[in-house]
Structure formats: structure tokens, C-alpha cells
Write a structure and sequence with these properties.
With about 160 residues, the protein is mainly beta. Helix content is about 10%, strand content about 55%.
Length: about 160
């Protein structure tokens, strides 16, 4: 699993979900952050499974309803299934992107767990708790936890309108 893939997935999910004005066909999530940033996020949730370097990877995108550029992306190293996924190299991963402030912040998960409680072709639900380190300033850290009930979302960059 690469940070590059997680970041690209985050951008695709943000663009796709940002273009969906109705939001009726997407799931929901709630999350709380503490540490260097203390806030709550709530909004839409979508998931997609795709192949990265010949391996199936599932990305779960959680997009804040107040600021769609604030997002959490959880990445699983396979098709979503019920169970626990440890956040560490080659297991599961995640990023948090926050755009408040002058420059915004990106935190990369380095420890934690994603627990999938339901996994079907039309729904992935569960909870997560992760510790993240700021991409540019490793002294800045956050803990993020929450729940999600995600529905399928299209992460094909060819379908994204660049003006969105």
C-alpha cells in the first residue's frame, strides 16, 4: 500500500462526492479528532474497490458535510470483509485532510484499527480509531475515531469533471 495511492484515492473520492449534489445515494459517518486538532466531522461515506499494482484495495472515503475538502480516507489491503484491520505497513492505512487554517493539514495514520462489521457489495460499515502524524511536522499528532456506513462510490478519475 502506498501513500501515493491513498492520496490519489482521496482526491478522486473528494472530486466525485463533491460533484454529487443530492447525496441521497451515499452513506454516512461521524468522527472526532483530538490532539493537534480538536474537531468533529460528519457527512457522506462511500467506498470503492480497485486494483493497485495487481492487488485489490478498498478505499473508504468520509467527506465532511460542512467542508467537503475535509476528509478521511481509510484504505484496506483487500476487498472489504468483516473483521479487524491493523493500521500499519501492508495492512491498512489512512489519511486525514483538513483544510481549515491558512495551509491545511494532512495527517497520515501510523497506528490503529479499522473494524468492518458489515461488508456486502452495496454497503461497508464499521468503526475506526487511528493515530496520525502530520505529513510535514511529525511533532503534530492527532487521534481520530468514528463510525461509518458507506455505500458504493465511483472513483474513476475519468468520470470527474475538472471544473467541479
Amino acid at each position: 500500500m502506498t501513500l501515493r495511492f491513498a492520496l490519489l484515492t482521496a482526491l478522486f473520492l473528494t472530486a466525485v462526492l463533491g460533484c454529487d449534489s443530492s447525496g441521497d445515494d451515499l452513506g454516512v459517518f461521524d468522527a472526532a479528532l483530538s490532539g493537534a486538532v480538536s474537531t468533529t466531522l460528519t457527512g457522506r461515506a462511500a467506498f470503492a474497490t480497485d486494483s493497485e499494482e495487481g492487488h485489490l484495495v478498498t478505499a473508504i472515503g468520509l467527506i465532511d458535510r460542512r467542508d467537503p475538502q475535509d476528509l478521511i480516507v481509510l484504505v484496506l489491503p483487500e476487498r472489504a470483509r468483516v473483521g479487524d484491520f491493523a493500521i500499519r505497513d501492508e495492512q491498512a492505512g489512512g489519511i486525514v485532510v483538513l483544510t481549515s487554517g491558512e495551509e491545511g493539514d494532512v495527517y497520515v495514520a501510523h497506528a490503529g484499527t479499522v473494524t468492518i462489521t458489515r461488508a456486502t457489495g452495496d454497503r461497508v460499515a464499521g468503526r475506526f480509531r487511528a493515530e496520525g502524524i502530520h505529513l510535514l511536522d511529525p511533532k503534530k499528532r492527532v487521534t481520530v475515531s468514528g463510525t461509518f456506513d458507506a455505500e458504493p462510490g465511483d472513483v474513476d478519475p475519468g468520470d470527474v469533471d475538472s471544473d467541479a
